[in-house]
C-alpha cells in the first residue's frame, strides 16, 4: 500500500514489522490518520499522555482487546500518563440496588480489569483519574510549545489555548497510539498555520458573560474553527491567574462540546494572542458579535429532553457541579456561594442531592488546606467526588432522571438541564424550581 | 436518474446499491450508537434525540451520508467498536472533509478488525442536498459515488 507521509527509515521499518506485528499496526493506524489530514511527517511527542477512556464500559469490549494486544506485545507508554475520571463512586453518588447492579454487572462491568490494563500500559497512579490533568495538583501540566497526544476535548482545548501547547483533537485509542509511539502526525493545530483564527468573536455584553454560555455560543457558531475573542479581557483581565484560568477552563469545555473547538485565542490574555496579537487572524475571517440578547437566545435554544421533556418544572433528583472538574479555588467559591444562599433561604442543608466533582489530588489539597470550606460543604449535605458526571449520566438508567447542572458539556451529551451558577445554587438549596 | 459525485477515499472500498440514511447535521457518534451497542442489539437504531434526521432509524449496514461527525472524542472508538461487533454502517459518505474523530474510527476499523467502513469525504454540499433516505447509493474504490 502506498502512503503519502514521508517516513524516516526507522518509521518505515516499524511500519514493515521490524518491531513486531502489533507495533506495525499502531504505526499503520497513525500513518493512515496522518494521510487523511495531509500530514507530511511525524513529530515527537514532548509532553506526558492523557487518555479519554477511563471507563470499563462493556460496549467498548473491542477496545479492551486492542489494549490486551498492546500489553501482550510488550508495548507501553514510556512517560506515565493520566486518564479521564472514573464513572462511578458508590460512596458519594448513591445508587439504588437495581442501578448498582446494572452499573457494576452490565454497564461498567469491565472497570476493574480495564484499570489493570491502564496500569500495565503506564498509568501515572491510581489517583490520576481526572479531565483536568493539567492542574498543578495532578502534575500533567504541559509547557508552552509541547506537542501532545491527548483526546479529552476539554483538556485539549485548555492545553492549546491557555498553556500554548500543541495538540490535535484526537479520538480515543489514537491518542494512546501516539503516546506509545512517542510521535504524532503533524497537521492542523500542530502547525503555525493551523493555529490561526478564521473567526473574530466580539464580546459586547453589559457584564461578564457566564463562561458556559459564552463558550456554548462560540462553539455552536464556529464549530471546529479557531476563534479570536475580543472584548473578553475587559471582564476577566489580562493576567492568567487561577480565577481567569478557571473561567477559561469552563468556557473552553463548552466551546469544545457544543462545537468542536480545539483552540481559541483571547486578545491580550492567552499566550499566543499576547505574543502575536491580530497577526493570528486569517485575512477574511468572519465576525460573530455576542451581546446580552445573543447569550439569552443561545440559552433559550437548549432542548429539554429526558425527564424535562414532559415536565419542564420537574423536581430535580440530582445536581452536578464540576464538568470539567473544579479547581481548588472553585471548590472554595462554591462553599461560599452555598453558604450565602442557605442563609438567604433560611436553611441549613441543601434541598436535594448535590455533587461537586474535582480531581482526587485537588480534593486531597482542599481537605488539607481549606478544611473549613470542606467542612462547610459536607455540613450542608453536599457530596464531593472525583467521578465523571458525564459517564455517570450517559446511560439509559440515569438518562431518565431529572438532573440539573451548570455544565454545558454535561447538558450537551446527556439529558441534564443547564442552569447558570446563580440559578443552580438557588434551585439546589430550595430543592426545586 | 442517477447522479455522480467525486470525493476522496479515506478508506477505499466498493458498495453496490446500498441504502442511504441521511443526516443534514453533524452526527454525534456516541449519542447515536451507544444505546444499541449497550443493549447488544443486532442492529443500531440511532438514539440521538438531538438529531431528528436519523433518530430512531436503523444505521447498521446502511450508507450513512453526513457532513461530519461531532461530539465526544470517544467517537472514533465507538465507530471502531460497532464495526468490530458487526453492526456498523457499511459506508460513511461525508460532504465535508472528514473530521479527526470519524477518521480515527474508520481507520481503526480498517486496521484492527476484519470489517470495513468504507469512507469517502469532500463530496460537496450538493451531494448532501441531493441524496435522500432510502435512495440507492454505489461507491467505487476511487471515491466516485453514484446516487439513485
Structure description:
The complex is a heterodimer of chains A (433) and B (148). Chain A has 433 residues and is of the alpha/beta class. Chain A has helices at residues 9-15, 21-36, 61-72, 97-107, 111-121, 153-161, 174-181, 211-222, 233-236, 242-258, 271-276, 292-300, 307-310, 328-345, 360-369, 371-379, 389-393, 396-399, 408-413, 421-430, and strands spanning 42-44, 49-51, 81-83, 183-185, 197-203, 227-230, 265-266, 281-290, 318-326, 353-358, 382-385, 403-405, 417-418. Chain A folds into 3 domains: 9-190, Aconitase, domain 3 (2-Layer Sandwich), CATH 3.30.499; 193-300, no CATH class; 307-430, Aconitase, domain 3, CATH 3.30.499. Chain A has 20 helices and 13 strands. In chain A, the strands form 4 sheets. Chain A has a 5-stranded parallel beta sheet with strand order 11-10-9-12-13. In chain A, strand 2 (49-51), helix 3 (61-72) and strand 3 form a beta-alpha-beta unit. In chain A, helix 2 packs across helix 7 (174-181), helix 6 (153-161) packs across helix 10 (242-258) and helix 8 (211-222) runs parallel beside helix 10. The longest helix of chain A is centred in the last third of the chain and has 18 residues, at 328-345. The termini of chain A are far apart. Chain B is of the alpha/beta class and 148 residues long. Chain B has one domain (3-147): Glucose Oxidase, domain 1 (3-Layer(bba) Sandwich), CATH 3.50.30.10. Chain B has 4 helices and 10 strands; from the N terminus they run E-E-E-E-H-E-E-H-E-H-E-H-E-E. Chain B starts with a strand and ends with a strand. In chain B, 60% of the residues are buried. The A-B interface holds A 25, 28-29, 32-33, 36-37, 52-53, 57-63, 65-66, 106-107, 151-153, 156, 168-174, 188, 223-224, 257, 260, 303, 305, 394-396, 412-413 and B 10, 26, 30-31, 34-35, 37-38, 49-50, 68, 70-78, 80-81, 84-85, 98-101, 103-105, 107-108, 110-113.
Amino acid at each position: 500500500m502506498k502512503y503519502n507521509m514521508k517516513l524516516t527509515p526507522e518509521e518505515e521499518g516499524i511500519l514493515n514489522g521490524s518491531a513486531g506485528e502489533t507495533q506495525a499496526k499502531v504505526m499503520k493506524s497513525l500513518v493512515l490518520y496522518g494521510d487523511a489530514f495531509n500530514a507530511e511527517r511525524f513529530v515527537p511527542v514532548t509532553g506526558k499522555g492523557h487518555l479519554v477512556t477511563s471507563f470499563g464500559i462493556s460496549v467498548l469490549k473491542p477496545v479492551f482487546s486492542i489494549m490486551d494486544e498492546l500489553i501482550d506485545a510488550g508495548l507501553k507508554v514510556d512517560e506515565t500518563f493520566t486518564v479521564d475520571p472514573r464513572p462511578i463512586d458508590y460512596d458519594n453518588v448513591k445508587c439504588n440496588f437495581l442501578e448498582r447492579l446494572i452499573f457494576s454487572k452490565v454497564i461498567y462491568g469491565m472497570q476493574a480489569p480495564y484499570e489493570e490494563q491502564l496500569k500495565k500500559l503506564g498509568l501515572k497512579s491510581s489517583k490520576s483519574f481526572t479531565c483536568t490533568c493539567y492542574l498543578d495538583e495532578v502534575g500533567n501540566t504541559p509547557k508552552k510549545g509541547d506537542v501532545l497526544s491527548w483526546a479529552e476535548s476539554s483538556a485539549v482545548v485548555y492545553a492549546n489555548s491557555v498553556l500554548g501547547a500543541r495538540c490535535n483533537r484526537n479520538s480515543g485509542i489514537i491518542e494512546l497510539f501516539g503516546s506509545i509511539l512517542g510521535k504524532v502526525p503533524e497537521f492542523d493545530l500542530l502547525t503555525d498555520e493551523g493555529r490561526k483564527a478564521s473567526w473574530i468573536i466580539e464580546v459586547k455584553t453589559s457584564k461578564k458573560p457566564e463562561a458556559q454560555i459564552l463558550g456554548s455560543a462560540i462553539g455552536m457558531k464556529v464549530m471546529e474553527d479557531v476563534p479570536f475573542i475580543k472584548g473578553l479581557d475587559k471582564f476577566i483581565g489580562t493576567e492568567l491567574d487561577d480565577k481567569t484560568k478557571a473561567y477559561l477552563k469552563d468556557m473552553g469545555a463548552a466551546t469544545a462540546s457544543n462545537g468542536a473547538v480545539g483552540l481559541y485565542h483571547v486578545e491580550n490574555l492567552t499566550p499566543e494572542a499576547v505574543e502575536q496579537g491580530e497577526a493570528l487572524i486569517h485575512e477574511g475571517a468572519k465576525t460573530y458579535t455576542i451581546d446580552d440578547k445573543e447569550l439569552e437566545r443561545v440559552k433559550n435554544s437548549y432542548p429539554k429532553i429526558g425527564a424535562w421533556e414532559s415536565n419542564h418544572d420537574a423536581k430535580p433528583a440530582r445536581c452536578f457541579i464540576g464538568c470539567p472538574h473544579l479547581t481548588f479555588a472553585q471548590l472554595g467559591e462554591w462553599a461560599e456561594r452555598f453558604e450565602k444562599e442557605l442563609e438567604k433561604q433560611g436553611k441549613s442543608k441543601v434541598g436535594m442531592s448535590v455533587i461537586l466533582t474535582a480531581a482526587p489530588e485537588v480534593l486531597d489539597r482542599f481537605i488539607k488546606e481549606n478544611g473549613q470550606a470542606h467542612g462547610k460543604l459536607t455540613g450542608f449535605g453536599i457530596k464531593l467526588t472525583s467521578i465523571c458526571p458525564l459517564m455517570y449520566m450517559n446511560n439509559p438508567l440515569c438518562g431518565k432522571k431529572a438532573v440539573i447542572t451548570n455544565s454545558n458539556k454535561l447538558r450537551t451529551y446527556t439529558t441534564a438541564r443547564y442552569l447558570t451558577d446563580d440559578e443552580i445554587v438557588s434551585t439546589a438549596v430550595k430543592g426545586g424550581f | 436518474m442517477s447522479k455522480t459525485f467525486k470525493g476522496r477515499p479515506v478508506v477505499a472500498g466498493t458498495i453496490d446499491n446500498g441504502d442511504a440514511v441521511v443526516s443534514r447535521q453533524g452526527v454525534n457518534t456516541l449519542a447515536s450508537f451507544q444505546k444499541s451497542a449497550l443493549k447488544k442489539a443486532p442492529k443500531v437504531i440511532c438514539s440521538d434525540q438531538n438529531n431528528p434526521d436519523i433518530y430512531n432509524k436503523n444505521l447498521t449496514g446502511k450508507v450513512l451520508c453526513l457532513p461530519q461527525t461531532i461530539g465526544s472524542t470517544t467517537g472514533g472508538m465507538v465507530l471502531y467498536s460497532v464495526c468490530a461487533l458487526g453492526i456498523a454502517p457499511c459506508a460513511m459518505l461525508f460532504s465535508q472533509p472528514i473530521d479527526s474523530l470519524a477518521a480515527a474510527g474508520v481507520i481503526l476499523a480498517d486496521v484492527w478488525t476484519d470489517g470495513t467502513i468504507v469512507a469517502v469525504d469532500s463530496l460537496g454540499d450538493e451531494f448532501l442536498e441531493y441524496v435522500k433516505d432510502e435512495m440507492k447509493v454505489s461507491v467505487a474504490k476511487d471515491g466516485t459515488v453514484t446516487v439513485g
